[in-house]
Amino acid sequence: MAGVHKSENAPNRFVLGLFLLAAALVAALIQVLDALGAMTSPGCGLQSGCHAAASSVFGRLPVLEWPLSYVGTAWFAGLLVVWILTRGDIGRAWGWVVRVGVAASLFYAGVLAGRGFVCPYCIAVHVANVAFLVMLETRAQPLRARGFSSVGPALATVGAIGIALALSHAQFADSARAQAEHALQQTTAALQAGRDEDTAKGFVGRHARGKAQAGARIVVFTDYQCEDCHKFEAQLDRVLAADADTSVAIRHFPMCASCNPHALDLHPNACWAARAAEAAAIVGGDSGFWRMSDWLFARRGSFTEGELDKGLVELGFDRRAFLAAMHSEETLARVREDIDIGMRIGLTSTPMIFINGVELRGFEAPNALERALAEARAQPRTAVVPPSARERFLNEWRTAPRVVLPVDMKPHVLGAPDAPVKIVLFGDYQEPFTCAADIELRALTLNNPRVSYAFRAFPVNKACNSVAELDLHPRACLAALGAEAAGVMQGEDGFWALHDWIMTHRTELNDGTLTQAAEDLGMPRADYWNALLRPEIEMWLAEDVRAAKALDLKQIPLIYIDGRRVTNWKSGEESLLGAIVAEALR
């Protein structure tokens, strides 16, 4: 009976092993694609746990500085090849290889937990890896002593993937360097164009460290739990140690909802860390602030009550006075003041760095900080006030390169096709910001004969969108295909009529309401459904999806005005679309 039990379960274990290794491989590959800029994985934006983990010292290979996900991808691809070739009977030698891999997984899982990095793809890799070992260790029959069979194909797989990743990484690194250099050139040009004014009128932070009238004055919006902020802080320390003509001041922008209603809730202790730094300033002045700031950065902004008590003793603070200050309304008011300033100047991520009031862009370029500081010291009387969020976002559009958008085989254009200002929007009929932008852009177009507006669909639904990463809107495919069917029935007038109905009734959309809307517009039910099932409308939708992917769509709506990408079309509650169109018309 035992032998029968083994033979019955062997295929199941083989399939389970395939599933676990494939799951680990896919999760690692998603992180690779994110690292190479080929996609933005859900939950892996600039302020996410994924980004923090990948940016940390534990997220990259020493010397090469390659993302650790490269290793994971090659590792699991090689194991998958061995598992398939041996039909799941990998032998004891490979079993030890698996154990070594799981030991690494446990170490990195501990790093994730210790640092508070919530990275779903990292977790998926480690869970699948550990589950694979558990499956091996609980086999009814022990692994046999058969050596490293299939080592050749496994090494060939790892080698091929390694070469492909090395080439892709080099290409991505070259592109990133070029973009960073271009952004840094904008910074140095702005520093050169600075006005000669009283430096007191310039952009300042709190608790400046360094010479009061330094030639280069740095202000940083920071978050003590932000990994990139921690790395930049280390650069600042080196600069201050080497250059007496530089000062640094801090403003806070915690990515934590408990004190910052404008931020994603990514860093659970960031608000208390910022308030602790301000409490240190209240009881210990600027020197107290910097002692606490250094302590917080060393701990990545995370501390327990006991750890804080111990730190207060080490840093020379009176515990009672410090805690009273930290829990006071004053520290919260200071942090919120900084948050409000950050929002007014269009902060979207941390760190946000200013040198003599000019935003440091492209700080990823080699020696970017030192080069920008040298330029600032060459203009010692520059005192620039950063532009408002509105002006910042408008300038992002002004300075964006003009691009040729992918061809549309079946365009839907409102207004004259040869209008001098052309607007294109990629969006999802069920996504509220798409609807708001679309309604405003149609009104702008109808009120100006020199403007045309084209809508291209990007449903966030995998049923009709091969590149969608999520299924957010269950009727997005129905909406996109339904509008195309109306175009088949009644041409552009029919398309835009049903398009308008969908945009203004997105929450009511279903098969019945869409069909009734089509009937109300003069489309017989049977004919409309026949049009909806025609294969070419799926082809037109797929073309829009491919076009959006080619343009590196990362969020919707994706808007182009006059061939230039609109990265932020709202400043707070104010829409900037009218202002951009007006400027394009000039």
Which segments are poorly predicted (pLDDT under 50) over 5 or more consecutive residues?
1-8, 196-200
Count of individual beta strands: 12
Q: Categorize the overall geometry.
A: globular
Estimated structural class: alpha+beta
Strand order of the largest sheet: 1-3-2-4-5
Query: How much is the average pLDDT?
Result: 87
Radius of gyration using CA atoms only: 28 Å
CATH class group of the largest domain: Alpha Beta
Q: How many domains make up the coordinates?
A: 3
- In CATH, the topology of the largest domain is named Glutaredoxin
Structure in a nutshell:
By secondary structure, the protein is α+β, with helices and mostly antiparallel strands. 57% of the residues lie in helices and 9% in strands. The protein has 19 helices and twelve strands.
Written description of the protein model:
The structure is a single chain. The chain is of the alpha+beta class. The protein folds into 3 domains: 2-149, no CATH class; 195-386, Glutaredoxin (3-Layer(aba) Sandwich), CATH 3.40.30.10; 413-585, 3-Layer(aba) Sandwich (Glutaredoxin). Helices cover 57% and strands 9% of the residues. It has 19 helices and 12 strands. It has helices spanning 2-35, 49-55, 68-85, 91-115, 120-137, 151-192, 227-242, 270-298, 305-315, 319-326, 329-344, 368-377, 389-399, 432-446, 476-504, 511-520, 525-532, 535-550, 577-585; strands at 206-210, 216-222, 246-252, 352-355, 358-359, 413-414, 421-427, 451-457, 558-561, 564-566, 570-571, 574-575. Strands 1-3-2-4-5 form a 5-stranded mixed beta sheet. Helix 7 links the parallel strand 2 and strand 3 (246-252). Helix 1 packs antiparallel against helix 5 (120-137), helix 8 (270-298) packs across helix 10 (319-326) and helix 15 (476-504) packs across helix 18 (535-550). The longest helix is centred in the first third of the chain and has 42 residues, at 151-192. It is globular and about 80 Å long. The protein starts with a helix and ends with a helix. Mean pLDDT is 87; it is low at 1-8 and 196-200.
